[in-house]
Write a structure and sequence with these properties.
Strand content: 25-35%
Number of strands: 38
Helix content: 10-25%
Structural class: alpha+beta
Radius of gyration: 27 Å
Oligomer: single chain
Strand order of the largest sheet: 6-7-8-9-19-15-14-11-12
Largest sheet: 9 strands, antiparallel
Shape: globular
Distance between the termini: 40 Å
């Protein structure tokens, strides 16, 4: 049983394949956290909790004269503001009186077979024989009749635990939620590192590792999306943890909007980790009888370094978060016309590109921005989702049919959440945008944002999209969002509910994507927000792949895809071969290297194939054939980070290996060519020591490749790359 209850000791123990999580209800009904770490025999770990009179740490009235009992020092499972705990809190509630005090006590629990689901929000699910159980612990504030249900999903075979929170107002008056974290974890012992992934547009998810110091360290987003700047995935690790050794903890929030992740080291060297919706500009009114669900957080513990943690997340996200026919089906190699033409195209120009792409072995042609409304630049037309047949010279159905006749699939670009001021839609419905009354709005990329918290707005855009998609054969849809949200005000909500707009917007986005996926199950959806501005686990529930970054430079992609890989599978990373000199950096890299890097993703092209030389065309044909040959190994195999491209001065290297160790693919990119360079080897992982492997016409024992390594050739040119295939004999 993955959930073990000791009612005599009020002890809850959650067990996965290799980890264990434990809580205990104490004599006052407070839910204390006792243990999270390596799976051991089940034992009451509350013996580790030490109580002392520390001074200036207040004592609950229930404790009488016991000055050693304080919520300011105890490890709690879900902390509350106004309870005498002066650390960062998980929950803060304001009442009509203006008071904010809250004291939660355990009232009940239940164990359910299977994994819970959250209405209107993404969550990891159990299927294909994966064992899952749910623990629900009900806590209540007796004075104000606020009830909090803590949900724990224990996915034993997947080796992870999920958490969610539901707050209910069982009183007679409205209450306002001002902070609702999805998880709280208190670690009374240990010195940790705080690992986050920062960035910017065109350089996302760069790894940052700093020691957890006294005070609060936090990352988050107030941009309305999870953002390019910080990612809703963080890690806590021992100071000496490496890729393959040491303990670490991962926390991933399945949410695509404003978020906050905090690590606080308190006065007694205890570390608290919190994660959930960002409380800034957040307030949610609960009328009597209403409830609020916080988004899910997925927690992973590893005693085998970052690599083991990564493999757990990859397997769970690929198999139990992504949905639909494309989560495992082979996805087509695509070409996108954006960097090949930008807005300067006609239907005939696209058809010429598609014809040349088909000759190279490309399987999907994607028409990007500029096919609709009055849209020849990025300052007009957004929101007018009707085909510009004058520009295309034909209907969308005719264009699609001609492309399909070439043996290609057909895809198009959309940005349903955006609207141009120079558009028919804005002139007809200016109140449909997020805009503060009496103020001029902030512009981003010359556009405003539609109020997706409103059902009428979503319904209109949905109908407009359906009128296009129903009239043509569309196999792929790229969903883009090209600005941060500001001017957060909805014309449809009253003043005391304006704090709900950011969260209601995300719920509206999810509702729209759910409808779209159900209506068009055979369309491959790719998420995008100026590249990686909404690359999060929440979006993966609706779009099985996300455009990793607008930066298509192969050298910079090494770092972007490296950071992304700690949580997100290769099969989710949109990656393309682009033209050189690169449009973002001006750098020129070998065509082979651009392909090697893009193959560590969904793989495609972002260029005009008509501008390739005959030699380059032959090389592209070979690249596509090679990717198809290694597709299952790359997309479904285990991913190993062999170097850190931001810190290794010589080579960037990574590896794909089948789960059974029968096959591996080693990928290497030379950081720069140097004269008389010292020899370099790569220690392979994921192989069997006791068997032989063949590569490059030679045979190697698995143990030799693991412990002795594989020698890397000397680089003869800048950014030279190699792929080495190992097969068990």
């Amino acid at each position: 049983m993955s959930i073990v209850l000791n009612e005599q000791k009020s002890l809850f123990t959650l067990c996965t394949k290799t980890s264990m999580y434990q809580m205990k209800t104490d004599q006052y009904g407070v839910l204390l956290h006792t243990y999270y770490g390596k799976k051991t025999e089940i034992f009451d770990y509350s013996y580790l909790i030490q109580r002392r009179d520390h001074g200036f740490s207040g004592n609950p009235y229930q404790a009488g004269n016991d000055r050693t009992y304080s919520l300011d020092t105890l490890p709690q499972e879900y902390s509350c503001f106004g309870s005498g705990d002066y650390r960062q809190s998980a929950l803060s509630v304001r009442y009509q009186t203006g008071a904010r005090a809250l004291e939660l006590r355990v009232k009940d629990f239940e164990i359910l077979e299977g994994k819970y689901r959250i209405p209107g929000l993404p969550s990891i699910y159990a299927e294909d024989g994966n064992r899952a159980d749910t623990l629900v612990i009900t806590m209540k504030d007796d004075v104000e009749d606020v009830c909090v249900k803590l949900y724990y999903g224990v996915l034993e075979d997947l080796d992870l635990i999920t958490r969610a929170v539901c707050v209910e107002n069982r009183g007679a008056a409205p209450v306002f939620l001002e902070r609702v974290m999805s998880m709280c974890l208190d670690k009374p012992y240990g010195n940790y590192d705080w690992i986050t992934f920062y960035g910017k547009h065109e350089m996302e998810r760069q790894l940052s590792r700093t020691a957890v110091h006294h005070g609060v360290q936090a990352v988050g987003s107030l941009r309305g999306a999870s953002s390019h700047q910080y990612n809703p995935f963080v890690m806590l690790s021992d100071r000496n943890t490496t890729e393959t050794q040491g303990e670490c903890y991962g926390f991933s929030l399945l949410y695509s909007g404003n978020f906050l992740a905090e690590a606080e080291k308190d006065q007694f060297d205890q570390t608290r980790v919190l994660m959930g919706i960002h409380p800034e500009n957040f307030s949610f009114k609960l009328e009597p009888g209403e409830s609020f669900w916080a988004p899910e957080a997925a927690m992973v513990y590893s005693d085998g370094g970052f690599e083991k943690l990564t493999h757990i997340y990859h397997r769970a996200f690929r198999n139990n978060l992504c949905r639909g026919r494309f989560k495992h089906a082979r996805r087509p190699v695509l070409i996108n016309n954006w960097e090949g033409t930008y807005f300067d195209f006609t239907g005939e120009k696209l058809l010429r590109m598609a014809e040349k792409a088909a000759d190279l072995g490309v399987e999907l042609f994607v028409m990007d921005d500029g096919w609709f409304g009055n849209r020849d630049t990025d300052n007009s037309g957004l929101g007018d989702w009707h085909v510009n047949e004058e520009k295309l010279g034909c209907t969308l159905a005719e264009l699609s049919d001609r492309i399909h006749a070439m043996g290609l699939k057909f895809g198009i670009w959309y940005e349903p959440e955006g609207i141009s001021e120079d558009s028919s839609l804005y002139r007809e419905h200016p109140d449909w945008v997020l805009r503060v009354p009496g103020r001029n709005p902030m512009r981003g990329r010359y556009q405003l944002v539609l109020d997706f918290s409103r059902a009428d707005v979503r319904d209109y855009i949905f109908d407009q999209m359906c009128s296009v998609l129903d009239r043509a054969k569309v196999d792929y849809l790229k969903w883009d969002f090209n600005r941060s949200i500001s001017d957060v005000y909805s014309a449809q909500l009253p003043a005391d509910r304006q704090g709900e707009v950011p969260h209601r917007y995300v719920l509206g986005l999810y509702e729209f994507l759910e409808r779209l996926g159900k209506r068009y199950p055979d369309i491959l959806l790719e998420g995008c927000s100026g590249g990686g501005g909404r690359f999060d686990a929440g979006m993966l529930h609706y779009t099985p792949q996300i455009w990793c970054s607008d930066d298509t430079d192969a050298v910079e992609r090494l770092e972007i895809q490296y950071g992304t890989s700690f949580c997100y599978p290769v099969s989710t990373m949109g990656a393309h071969v682009s033209a050189c000199p690169n449009h973002q950096t001006g750098r020129t890299t070998p065509l082979n290297t651009r392909a090697v890097v893009a193959m560590a993703g969904t793989f495609g092209y972002e260029l005009d194939p008509g501008k390739l030389t005959e030699e380059e065309k032959d090389e592209v044909r070979k690249q596509i054939a090679l990717f198809k040959e290694y597709y299952d190994l790359i997309q479904e195999g285990r991913y190993y980070r062999l170097t850190d491209p931001a810190r290794d001065e010589h080579y960037a290297a990574w590896e794909f290996a089948k789960e059974d160790g029968s096959e591996a693919l080693l990928c290497v990119v030379a950081s720069r060519a140097r004269t008389n360079d010292p020899p370099t080897r790569m220690l392979l992982r994921g192989l069997d020591e006791g068997v032989l492997y063949e590569a490059e016409g030679k045979v190697y024992p698995g143990g030799a490749l693991i412990h002795g390594g594989f020698p890397v050739p000397e680089a003869k040119e800048e950014y030279q790359s190699w792929m080495f295939h190992f097969v068990r004999k």
